[in-house]
Every structure is written in structure tokens, then in C-alpha cells.
Amino acid sequence: MDCTSSMGSWINAAKKHVNNIVKGVEEDISQKFSREGNVKVGFVAYRDFNDKVPYDYIDLTADIDAVRTKISEQKADGGGDIPEDPIGGLEIASTFKWRENSCKMIVLVTDAPQHGPGIFHSMYFFGDSHPKCPPKGHPKAGIPHLARATAVMNSLKSQSIRFVFTKLTKQTEKFEKKLMELYGDNEHFKSINLGDKPEAFKQGIEDQVVTMLADLL
């Protein structure tokens, strides 16, 4: 989740609804499969390269209260220019302890694209402080943004991790299309249009999980 200064209402929505989302998923598993669900959730907060806390996360866990606590620790700050580093967040999530024989899903919640004018966004007028690659001192310094994006989307697909992109603003459209292209599987790459409606967060995510489970029937 993008946790820069414009994302306060979405951070609050995630904190408010994470327990109920998991409860709803477990109930759906019980009804459809007549078995208990073993749901694990993780969380990645990302911002931008030069922010004080560019990344913060908790790996997949059944302790949903611990995830909620991690979300509650986030403050909507930082960002600077419009593009951020969602690829950095996805890189972290791709290394989580994903169980092989499980239903896996990543939900990207962001109102800003990845750095990389012409590839991930067209906002030349507003500028991009890191147009080509992460800056010196970053673990991926010097690696082009497109190369990073290609590698992480290939990693997610190879692990059979479904991808959900949340549409909050029009300025992420180019970024979304590029990620879908890199993922290369429209069936397991879905978009949900939440617009400026944090109250729709819970239902939007639950609907995608129900769709994922329906594919298994």
C-alpha cells in the first residue's frame, strides 16, 4: 500500500476493515468448501526512495491483529513528486513466505504510478525525480525501473500469485496497463475501480477473493 501523504483515508480503511475482510473470507471458505479456512495476511507500506521510512512490512501471518497493528503504525507522509516506488513494495511482497498449495493474492493500493516517464506515466509536466532507476544507496540502485518491474511481475506469476490493482485516480492508468502487460495473464490480473471511495475498500477486496475462490469450484 502506498502510504504517502495523500493516502491517509485509505490507510484508515485498511486498518478498519482487515479483520472483517479475513472473517468474510473464512466464512466464504466454510460455506463453499465445508472446511475451515487458514487465512494469512501480510502488509507492505511503501513510499518513495528518499523518504525517512521508504518501506515497512509484516510477512504473511495468521495473527491478523498483528497486521492491523502494523497498518496502524503507518503515517501518511512523504512522497515529494507524484511518482513513488510501488515496485519496491511488490519486490518485498514477492519474497514473503507464500505457501505452495494455497490461493495467493496481492492487492496493490496506490494513487500514484511508479517512477519512469514514458513507461509508467506521462506526467512530464510535473517532473520525475528518479526517471531511470533508484538512487545511489538503494539496494536496487542503477537497475532500470522497467527491469525491476519485469522481474517482480515474473516472480509473482511464477508463484501463481494473483494480482489485484486498485484504481483510485486516472494517473495510474499507464502504470496499471504496463503491469498487466508484464504479468501477461489477464485472467489472474484484475482491476477494481474504487475511485475516491475508501468506504468501498472492504467490499471491493472481498469480491475479488470470492471470485478467486469461485475459480476453484
Q: State the share of residues found in helices, binned by percent.
A: 25-40%
Can you write the helix and strand succession as a string?
HEEHHEHEHEH
Number of strands: 5
Low-confidence runs of at least 5 consecutive residues: none
Shape: globular
Distance between the termini: 30 Å
Strand-helix topology:
Elements: H1 8-33, E1 41-46, E2 55-61, H2 64-72, H3 86-94, E3 104-110, H4 145-158, E4 161-167, H5 173-183, E5 189-193, H6 201-214
Parallel strand pairs: 3-4, 4-5
Antiparallel strand pairs: 1-2
Helix pairs in contact: 1-2, 1-6, 3-4
Protein architecture, described:
It is a single chain. The longest helix is centred in the first third of the chain and has 26 residues, at 8-33. The strands form 2 sheets. Strands 3-4-5 form a 3-stranded parallel beta sheet, with helices on both faces. Strands 1-2 form a two-stranded antiparallel sheet. It starts with 7 loop residues before the first helix and ends with a helix. The model has no long low-confidence stretch (mean pLDDT 92). The protein has 6 helices and 5 strands, in the order αββααβαβαβα. The protein is of the alpha/beta class and 217 residues long. Helix 3 packs parallel to helix 4 (145-158).
